[in-house]
């Protein structure tokens, strides 16, 4: 039973079927195909506004290319100190922005403290040649801690962006889980709250490899085509990326899969909190659970074949991610094992 | 009937089957899966030497990442003036090398003239602070003109590289077609002839999206993992890239598909040469045919639904690419149409 | 007697005096000083139009920073194949443009053949995601061959730039010599002919180290301050750069020095052409002479202490650069020596 | 009376004299002159070890080029959160390292807390493809807060570097002040304590514009020449940079000037501490004093013509920098004025 990441799952059957269906016949390469041409319209319906959509294959590419459209090499991008773009992308954001600086900000539960952003902006870098120029804020939705920003919280950052001539990016590798977790509309969580560009994740949510960079302000996308090709991220057989994304949006599959994953995380969180000596660190608002389990018990669970990531060096806090295809029985089985090991301790 | 590119085809059935098979169960992410771990060994068998192999999804990524391992930002990479890395990758090689210069060289039939390379090296840039430092030569195999470099020709460039402290890269987007066309071993065409790094293409040859960067000198790959991630080219569900590559190597599928494509190009070339007023520009050694067809006849053929790229601005030379799944009847049908239109002219 | 470059000379006495004068008292750092604030106005008078001026210390910095304002990383900059930015700046233009491609063009006498530029633009790169996007043309004035572009010739390139959405840059490391050589106004040779940005050289013309990037369209300079600092080219004690430039413009010193240098080149060229077996390669329009002198005679001249650069690997063509402080006697002495050696041969 | 920075001073008379002396006659360009060839030897004497020395004109260039030799684009450089390379160089370090990440660390008095570095390294980034690879630590000597690292403190960081495969850089824009302040040998504070590369500042200490990048491990300098030229930092008339540096080392001028500046800072610090309601924030160990002066008094002092930088947004802490040419009377005059204003309050 593998809770290490949603990435350990394969693809949903609907996605495999879509790929097979798209494999019929010839199609123009590099995005000039029926599937790819459908993308803008399909996303515009889901987001209830006109948007420009570009498929890529990885979340890091989506984030880095999006930021490349927002920040020049002499720019500054503000992000949470534990965010994926800061910690887990091996400098891809610096690479694709031609060397912009990621300014790291603190905040509880994986969420940027707006006061910390205000303080950073208060240093007066804007317009002063010695300093990187404030260009963008990047929020992760859901965060690395499995928490979410509410529409109001997003709007607060958007307000700071507007007031300081910056753009607002959202890393939505688990955007589906956030939308499902809050039960709000995709629009409410993005452009209505002031988001300019969204990295819309599908891979973690049951695709093979597909993400969409969604621009709510088309003018920001002016250079995207060239940046994507320059980054080696233009697929020749683009239809296979686009078909995955279309299948995700078809009949709300993306939210259905996210709801399943979130429900398993709730089940896991509630179960763990009923067990003595075990606790849950942050509010579970998406498909991740961060649980404090004593190191020795965690090790015995691992020895029984359960897989999950230690989140702190002292092996006291652990991350559990529920993929779209985890079942109620999967989680129940794990909870039983925890109970047994705690009892035996 | 679409001859514009091998990219207009979908994936071979064996590749789709491999993808479906790999979709079973959970697997560690980011390359720590059974399929990915198999890659080095599988390629080492095919190339008859130990090699280090890294899957990526696009040919541009393969080329640019490979060159990034060979050339620093103050370096020079020598390539044919019509090569893909020079003309068709929107500065990806410059991007991934942190700004190296592509020095363009002439040569007939898409092949670098070795004398041009010697002359360029004779300028005495090496060791002089004013000039970009010669770092690599990149050969395209098969070339953009559908021709190939023989092992001896490759070795001639390798010799120049060795003598000037440079490395030799091979852009093998159509490497399978070159191997099949010459009926030589993969080893003879690469490391035995002095190639250091190969971009091994599978996408054009019947994969969804899969290329392998093959290092014949492992020490050159030291930074590849970090460069790949920094470029956003590390797949979380890597097994799906690796499974495509393994399926290609399985029972020689890659050469079988390439031989089919090449045979159709031969059929097309021979048929066209039998038609009055039509000629073929370069020796057909892989799966591409460049044919001189009068502009008016070409237009009438296009009006009948045949698709192929004009190769010169005056619409007198045209490119025909045979994908792995073109049939004898496809080509015969096109040849009939050409004969009819030439007759009617 | 050293004719290798105008760089072998020191600074003119007026420049040294200006530096000493500027050394009095304290002054705000980083350009907020009296000298630096004067620059825009002083250059605007000389160029008869409002311009924005930024001092830097090297010609390579001036060129690369100017191009960085004109071309993005996915852009293409068109330049002569023998130009300084292509051959002699160790990829600084690629570096400061974040990886733009320098597309090299041929042309006699160091001047781009406009037909070659037209042909390159005719490839249809603009707006196509596979190709670098045409962004700028860079002309060298005077060229590496000591020739000049007339205002009409410059305008022809400007016209191609306008028609293709590109900007026009002029590398004027020897701009003073070109203006003096043609006896035209600085305005006629730049913005009136369509130049957008000029690298105005002073170092070769008798400064210690000072160049000015002159923007004739202020909006193109919007990011210059940040790019200059990011490149490490913002001087803390900026007054010492600005004072050199102001001294150059004062009472036309820059043209006086350039006229002296040019006159010596004319004297040298005319003298050489009177000597049997010696000839001059290109029209001498600035301060450089390229002379065909038999290799054995050239070597004997070098053995007598005369210094000049071989321009071709076979040591048959040689470059002579006259710095501002070469005297009539200097040149006459050299001409005597050539006559003697030719006579002795 | 201007205490804003050591940059508001001009050059010391000895430096001006050296420049004038170097202006005699012709000299080979680009560093192949008598002055430049002397540099390695002159610095090797001062540092009591063989070193490779490269002159550049700005401190930002020195730092960024040095770091470019130490950290690849996928690397991480650890530095104090208030350091010049983090805050005041407009992303030059990111630019010259091709996009490395600056990881910011806290620490009192402008000095990195070694425990914070240990914690950062304890995250386990090394060898893991997701994370930037630890490449270098950069210490500022003297720090932005006017404090210094003792040789033992430097050695502690060197030890962490060695244990983690990293290099140690020292930003010595005010290195002279640190050496003078501690009265230790240049060797003790650098290579003997484990520093690999030093940015040796001369500009703030009384040069026009001259810094030296000093490599104590020559192999780290292998690419420096190309990086410097690529950055536009190779001076054609290099003798004028080198002559400034040689004059600084001549008869210990650099330490004499630094001692003068430090003595004025001591005088200022001691004087301020004797005034009621005024205090000094950090130990004064170089030529900077950070003084808490009530905002209203500070404003009145500024109205009387004294210039100094507010260091905190609330205008309660102020920076005073003593340049090499501040006199005892200058400082005494300011102290009198403070006393008067405090008395009047």
Automatic annotation (TrEMBL), chains A, B, C, D:
Instruction: Determine if Lyase is one of this entry's keywords.
Output: yes
Look up and give the organism this protein is from: Ferrovibrio xuzhouensis
Which Pfam families does the protein's record reference?
Beta_elim_lyase
Q: Which cofactor does it need?
A: pyridoxal 5'-phosphate
Q: Which residues form the Aromatic amino acid beta-eliminating lyase/threonine aldolase domain?
A: 2-290
Describe the protein's quaternary organization and the partners it interacts with: Homotetramer.
Stretch forming the signal peptide: none
Substrates-to-products reaction catalysed: L-threonine = acetaldehyde + glycine; L-allo-threonine = acetaldehyde + glycine
Query: By its UniProt entry, which PANTHER family does this protein fall under?
Result: L-THREONINE ALDOLASE-RELATED (PTHR48097), LOW SPECIFICITY L-THREONINE ALDOLASE (PTHR48097:SF5)
Family, per entry: Belongs to the threonine aldolase family.
What is the top-level taxon of the source organism?
A: Bacteria
Write down the EC number. 4.1.2.48
Q: What is this protein called?
A: L-threonine aldolase
InterPro entries per record: ArAA_b-elim_lyase/Thr_aldolase, Low_specificity_L-TA_bact, PyrdxlP-dep_Trfase, PyrdxlP-dep_Trfase_major, PyrdxlP-dep_Trfase_small
- Record bears the keyword Lyase: yes
What does it do? Catalyzes the cleavage of L-allo-threonine and L-threonine to glycine and acetaldehyde.
Q: Which controlled-vocabulary keywords does the entry list?
A: Lyase, Pyridoxal phosphate
């Amino acid at each position: 039973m593998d809770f290490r990441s949603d990435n350990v799952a394969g693809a949903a059957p609907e996605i495999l079927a879509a790929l097979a269906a798209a494999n019929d016949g010839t199609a123009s390469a590099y995005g000039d195909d029926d599937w790819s041409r459908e993308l803008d319209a399909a996303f515009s319906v889901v987001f209830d506004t006109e948007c420009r959509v570009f498929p890529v294959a990885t979340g890091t590419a989506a984030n880095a290319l999006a930021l490349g459209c927002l920040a020049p090499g002499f720019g500054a991008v503000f992000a949470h100190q534990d965010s994926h773009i800061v910690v887990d992308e091996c400098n891809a954001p610096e690479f694709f922005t031609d060397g912009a600086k990621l300014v790291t900000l603190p905040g509880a539960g994986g969420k940027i403290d707006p006061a910390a952003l205000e303080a950073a902006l208060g240093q007066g870098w804007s317009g002063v040649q010695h300093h990187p120029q404030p260009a963008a804020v990047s929020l992760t939705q859901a965060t690395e801690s499995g928490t979410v920003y509410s529409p109001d919280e997003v709007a607060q950052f958007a307000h700071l962006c507007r007031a300081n001539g910056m753009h607002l990016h959202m890393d939505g590798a688990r955007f589906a889980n956030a939308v499902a977790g809050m039960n709000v509309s995709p629009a409410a969580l993005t452009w209505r709250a002031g988001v300019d560009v969204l990295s819309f994740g599908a891979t973690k949510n049951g695709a093979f490899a597909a993400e969409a960079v969604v621009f709510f302000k088309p003018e920001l996308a002016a250079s995207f085509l060239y940046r994507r090709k320059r980054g080696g991220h233009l697929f020749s057989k683009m239809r296979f990326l686009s078909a995955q994304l279309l299948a995700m949006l078809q009949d709300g599959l993306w939210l259905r899969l996210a709801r399943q994953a979130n429900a398993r995380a709730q089940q896991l969180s509630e179960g763990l909190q009923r067990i003595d000596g075990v606790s849950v660190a942050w509010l579970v608002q998406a498909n991740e659970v961060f649980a404090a389990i004593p190191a020795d018990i965690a090790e015995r669970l691992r020895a029984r074949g359960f897989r999950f990531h230690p989140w702190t060096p002292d092996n006291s806090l652990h991350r559990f991610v529920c993929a779209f295809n985890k079942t109620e029985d999967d989680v129940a089985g794990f909870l039983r094992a925890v109970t047994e090991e705690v009892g035996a301790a």
